[in-house]
């Protein structure tokens, strides 16, 4: 505040000057102005002090100015320290905590100066103060924000509407290679490759015209430019920051060089995998023909020989040919399982959903497996419902039932295997259940978790013999069941047999 506040020559006496100054001090509302006598008793209380502290002049005139201090400050003699400092140095200035009439506290900036009479005699003190609580709060928040920015793992840059960098954190220095001091006030285009600099002010103006949070990346391919001129891929998220002077833009900048490298490596790996899958599919397609054709020929001629069409066989020859036939069938089964697995896992198994007569499928499966059951001395029984119908893939359903039933026959030494179908309505659903039960040895508890795993072969009980197979049958069944929206469950008891059930649910018709 400079210049002359009033012209003393306009007043007729010094008393009028004093009265005028007193009126000015008392009517001021911008600052709290308090005058005291030499002992600290309040002698003047202006309008600003009334608003700031809540006391009326009559409440405080004649009382010690210590009532404006906290108890802690009074106990450590802060009021006396302020007086001594003002007398010694001509002014005491500092930040203190003040107390209002309602006992609430606030932070104030206080200037205390001595008052002198015309002859130079000490007359007391003048205290001018203002509430800076909001400023202190904002400064603390700003300090906290700066701390967060320094601790942020990304480069953080704050830019004003003119594109000038207002703040940059340590990660910005490390990432771009510029000293922080050289970035403050510099255009944000300093951090952008030359080929984008011409267009960037337009993008920046658009952001400030329509400020909104823009997520990291947001589908854009962006690049940063280091001090040495090298470029690197980045992702940038923008957030508007409202201030008294308008919006600022807070940019979080992340170096994604490593991620891009990994993505590129994954892309190449996927291309190689696709190529390998195509080669595998081609190989399996060829093997399907190259392996099955000679095996079918072997099995066909073996069957012809065993039928005695070329001539009678002795017992030794018959036994040897049956071994060839059994081994050929086993090998064909393994090849079929592997080819089915490859087709399913490659996603190339096409489903054909159509109406299916359940009893017809059950009888077909039983007819195909009855020779195997007869060979083992096992009775294969069926229980069907003639009217049972469902919509599903006939080939997948048949394969599941064949695998479940052949497993039951294989793991049953004596007794029977029963294949049945039933239907019911539950909560507007048509529920079809195919059950395969046997009187075999059952499944041990410790084996049940591995039952549907690929390439796992589970024995019946301790001391049971190993059974031929790929270990893929139940895995394929479970996978096929999932494809046709079905589920396979089982129950088993050692020595009493097992029951496997395929349940398919579909909306009830009509």
Structure overview:
With 510 residues, the protein is α+β, with helices and mostly antiparallel strands. 42% of the residues lie in helices and 25% in strands. It has helices at residues 14-27, 47-53, 57-60, 71-75, 78-89, 133-151, 170-176, 180-183, 194-197, 200-209, 257-306, 315-345, 358-376, 394-410, 473-483, and strands spanning 32-36, 42-45, 92-99, 105-116, 122-131, 155-159, 165-168, 222-225, 231-243, 246-255, 353-357, 379-383, 389-393, 416-426, 429-438, 486-493, 497-507. A hairpin with a 5-residue loop joins strand 4 (105-116) and strand 5 (122-131). The two termini are 92 Å apart. Mean pLDDT is 84; it is low at 1-21 and 460-466.
What order do the helices and strands come in, and which of them pair?
Layout: H1 14-27, E1 32-36, E2 42-45, H2 47-53, H3 57-60, H4 71-75, H5 78-89, E3 92-99, E4 105-116, E5 122-131, H6 133-151, E6 155-159, E7 165-168, H7 170-176, H8 180-183, H9 194-197, H10 200-209, E8 222-225, E9 231-243, E10 246-255, H11 257-306, H12 315-345, E11 353-357, H13 358-376, E12 379-383, E13 389-393, H14 394-410, E14 416-426, E15 429-438, H15 473-483, E16 486-493, E17 497-507
Parallel strand pairs: 12-14
Antiparallel strand pairs: 1-2, 1-5, 3-4, 4-5, 6-7, 6-10, 8-9, 9-10, 11-13, 14-15, 15-17, 16-17
Helix pairs in contact: 11-12, 12-15, 13-14, 14-15
Give the CATH topology of the largest domain. Answer: Heat Shock Protein 90
Mean pLDDT reading: 84
Number of helices: 15
Protein structure class: alpha+beta
Low-pLDDT residue intervals, each spanning 5 or more residues: 1-21, 460-466
Please list the strands of the largest sheet in the order they lie side by side: 2-1-5-4-3
Q: How large, in whole angstroms, is the Cα Rg?
A: 47 Å
Q: For this structure, what is the CATH homologous superfamily of the largest domain?
A: Histidine kinase-like ATPase, C-terminal domain
Terminus-to-terminus distance: 92 Å
CATH domain class of the largest domain: Alpha Beta
| Number of self-contained structural domains | 4
């Amino acid at each position: 505040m400079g210049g002359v506040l009033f012209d003393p020559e306009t007043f007729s006496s010094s008393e009028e000057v004093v009265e005028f100054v007193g009126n000015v001090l008392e009517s001021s509302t911008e600052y709290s102005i308090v005058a005291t006598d030499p002992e600290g008793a309040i002698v003047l209380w202006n309008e600003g002090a009334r608003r700031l502290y809540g006391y009326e002049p009559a409440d405080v005139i004649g009382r010690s100015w210590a009532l404006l201090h906290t108890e802690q400050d009074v106990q450590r003699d802060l009021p006396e320290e302020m007086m001594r400092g003002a007398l010694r140095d001509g002014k005491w200035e500092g930040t203190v905590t003040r107390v209002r009439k309602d006992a609430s506290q606030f932070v104030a900036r206080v200037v205390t100066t001595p008052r002198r009479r015309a002859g130079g005699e000490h007359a007391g003190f003048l205290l001018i103060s203002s509430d800076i609580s909001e400023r202190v709060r904002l400064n603390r928040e700003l300090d906290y924000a700066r701390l967060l920015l320094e601790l942020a793992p990304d480069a953080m840059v704050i830019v004003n509407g003119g594109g000038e960098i207002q703040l940059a954190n340590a990660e910005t220095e490390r990432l771009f290679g510029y000293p922080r001091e050289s970035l403050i006030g510099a255009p944000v285009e300093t951090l952008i490759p030359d080929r984008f600099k011409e267009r960037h002010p337009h993008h920046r103006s658009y952001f400030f015209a329509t400020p909104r949070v823009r997520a990291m990346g947001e589908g854009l391919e962006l690049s940063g430019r280091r001090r040495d001129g090298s470029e690197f891929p980045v992702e940038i998220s923008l957030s508007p920051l409202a201030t008294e002077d308008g919006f600022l833009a807070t940019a979080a900048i992340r170096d994604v060089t490593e991620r891009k490298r990994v993505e590129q490596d994954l892309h190449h790996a996927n291309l190689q995998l696709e190529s390998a899958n195509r080669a595998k599919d081609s190989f399996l397609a060829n093997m399907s023909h190259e392996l099955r054709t000679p095996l079918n020929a072997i099995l066909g001629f073996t069957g012809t020989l065993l039928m005695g069409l070329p001539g009678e066989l002795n017992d030794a020859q018959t036994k040897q040919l049956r071994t060839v036939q059994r081994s050929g069938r086993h090998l064909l089964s393994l090849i079929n399982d592997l080819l089915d697995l490859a087709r399913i896992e490659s996603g190339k198994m096409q489903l054909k959903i159509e109406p299916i007569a359940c009893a017809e499928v059950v009888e077909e499966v039983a007819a195909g497996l009855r020779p195997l059951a007869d060979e083992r001395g096992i009775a294969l029984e069926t229980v069907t419902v003639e009217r049972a119908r469902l919509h599903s893939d006939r080939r997948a359903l048949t394969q599941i039932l064949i695998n479940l039933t052949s497993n039951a026959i294989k793991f049953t030494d004596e007794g029977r295997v029963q294949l049945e179908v039933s239907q019911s309505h539950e909560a507007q659903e048509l529920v079809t259940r195919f059950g395969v039960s046997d009187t075999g040895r059952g499944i041990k508890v410790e084996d049940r978790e591995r039952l549907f795993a690929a390439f796992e072969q589970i024995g019946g009980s301790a001391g049971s013999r190993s059974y031929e197979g790929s270990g893929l049958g139940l895995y394929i069944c479970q996978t096929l069941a999932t494809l046709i929206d079905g589920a396979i469950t089982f129950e088993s008891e050692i020595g009493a047999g097992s029951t496997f059930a395929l349940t398919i649910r579909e909306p009830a018709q009509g």
